[in-house]
Write a structure and sequence with these properties.
The structure holds two protein chains of two kinds. Chain A has no helices and eleven strands. Chain A is mainly β. In chain A, the strands form three sheets. In chain A, strands 2, 5, 6, 9, 10 and 11 form a six-stranded mixed sheet that branches. A three-stranded antiparallel sheet of chain A has the order 3-8-7, with no helix packed on it. By secondary structure, chain B is mostly beta strands. Helix content of chain B is about 0%, strand content about 50%. Chain B contains no helices and eleven strands. In chain B, strands 2, 4, 5, 6, 9, 10 and 11 form a seven-stranded mixed sheet that branches. In chain B, strands 1-3-8-7 form a four-stranded antiparallel sheet, with no helix packed on it. In chain B, a hairpin with a 5-residue loop joins strand 7 and strand 8. Chain B is globular. The N and C termini of chain B lie far apart (about 35 Å). The chains are: A mainly beta, B mainly beta.
C-alpha cells in the first residue's frame, strides 16, 4: 500500500543553519511527490513539486527513486521558514488522491 | 479571488448527529476533494469530485458521503457521528482538466468537534 513517512515530528535549527526535512515513500508505481507547507494561522499551500524541479523560497527537493525519498532542503534557514511541512504523494491513478505524511514542524530560532 | 472557502469554520455536534460541511472552489475550478485531518496527523483523502461526479473515494465508511453541485461547490455529509470523527475537514479545489499542471488549493478547513 502507498505510504509517506516523515520520521521527524519536530526539527529545530538556528537561523542560517542548513535544513533537511526527510520524506520517504512507498509506492510501486510512478509517483508524483509534493511538499506542502502550513504557516501559523494560514491554510495548507503547495511549496514545490518534483516534476517542476524548481526552487521555492530557497527550498529544493530531489526525487530519489532508488532510495524512495524526496527530502526537502534549504542551505540557510530563515526564521520565517518556521512552519509545518507535509510531504505528499500522488499516485498514477485516474484520480487525484494525495497521500500525506504526518508532517514535520520546523522551528527556526534566531 | 478569495480562494477556496469553507463553512462553517467551527462546529460542535454530539454523537449520533448528522453534519453537513460546505465548500466553494476557486472560480473556474471543476474539481473538489475532501480530506480529514485528525490532530497530529496529515490530511487523509475522503473523496474527489470532478464535473459533479465522484472520481475517487478513500477508505472511509458509508457514513461519509458527498456531492458536487452545478456551480461546482460541494457538500460533505457525515451521518451517525462518532467521537473519532472529530477533526479538521479540508476542502481542496483544483484545475484538473484545464490543460495546466494540476494543482490542489486548500481551504481553511472546518473544525468539527463531536462530544
Amino acid at each position: 500500500a502507498q505510504r509517506v513517512t516523515q520520521p521527524e515530528k519536530l526539527l529545530s535549527v538556528f537561523k542560517g543553519a542548513p535544513v533537511e526535512l526527510k520524506c520517504n515513500y512507498s509506492y510501486s508505481g510512478s509517483p508524483e511527490l509534493f511538499w506542502y507547507v502550513q504557516y501559523s494561522r494560514q491554510r495548507l499551500q503547495l511549496l514545490l513539486r518534483h516534476i517542476s524541479r524548481e526552487s521555492i523560497k530557497g527550498f529544493t527537493a530531489d526525487l530519489n527513486k532508488g532510495e524512495t525519498s524526496f527530502h526537502l532542503k534549504k542551505p540557510f534557514a530563515q526564521e520565517e521558514d518556521s512552519a509545518m511541512y507535509y510531504c505528499a504523494l500522488r499516485m498514477n491513478t485516474g484520480f487525484q488522491k494525495l497521500v500525506f505524511g504526518t508532517g514535520t514542524r520546523l522551528l527556526v530560532s534566531p | 479571488d478569495a480562494g477556496v472557502t469553507q463553512s462553517p469554520t467551527h462546529l460542535i455536534k454530539t454523537r449520533g448527529q448528522h453534519v453537513t460541511l460546505r465548500c466553494s472552489p476557486i472560480s473556474g475550478h471543476k474539481s473538489v476533494s475532501w480530506y480529514q485531518q485528525v490532530l497530529g496527523q496529515g490530511p487523509q483523502f475522503i473523496f474527489q469530485y470532478y464535473e459533479k461526479e465522484e472520481r475517487g473515494r478513500g477508505n472511509f465508511p458509508d457514513r461519509f458521503s458527498a456531492r458536487q453541485f452545478p456551480n461546482y461547490s460541494s457538500e460533505l455529509n457525515v451521518n451517525a457521528l462518532l467521537l473519532g470523527d472529530s477533526a479538521l475537514y479540508l476542502c481542496a479545489s483544483s484545475n484538473l482538466g484545464q490543460g495546466a499542471v494540476e494543482t490542489q488549493y486548500f481551504g481553511p478547513g472546518t473544525r468539527l468537534l463531536v462530544l
